[in-house]
Description:
about 40% helix; about 5% strand; 4 strands; about 160 residues
Amino acid sequence: MQGVQQLHLVGICHRNISLDTVLLEGRHCRLSHYGSALRIPMSEDGTSTPHLIAADPIGRCLGGPEYIAPELWTQQAFDGYAIDMWSVGIILWKLIVDKVDLFAAPVADDFRFREYCLEGKMKDRLKLTGLPENVVDLLEGLLCVHPLERYTLEDALAHQWLAE
């Protein structure tokens, strides 16, 4: 999350965060593969309010389709920060739940995506894993199908589970 934070601080979204793009170097993690990265367009008035980025074809994601945020599958304009946070949520899921795929792709055709995200049963699925409530809350916030309701980087970094 600190690598994502550094990118977001300078107005860049990675768009391809996956376990394959996280490199371990001793006790440090580094993000790699910046070929899909984009500069976030900011408001013309000089504030740091990001604009939505125009929809574009889904690029190749090294980690697989589940890392691609739902709004990208529907070819909507997107918030670059929010799509990175979706990918962070998938990574966290894989690290905590022993790399078990949550779903094949975040599209309504995938019954697990439909059940967990669109029908709001993510918390039920996460509780089956026996995870503590605060971990369930963090994952549910990161993997929220609605980008405006999805946890921001600040929300995630301030979350109780990460603070512990």
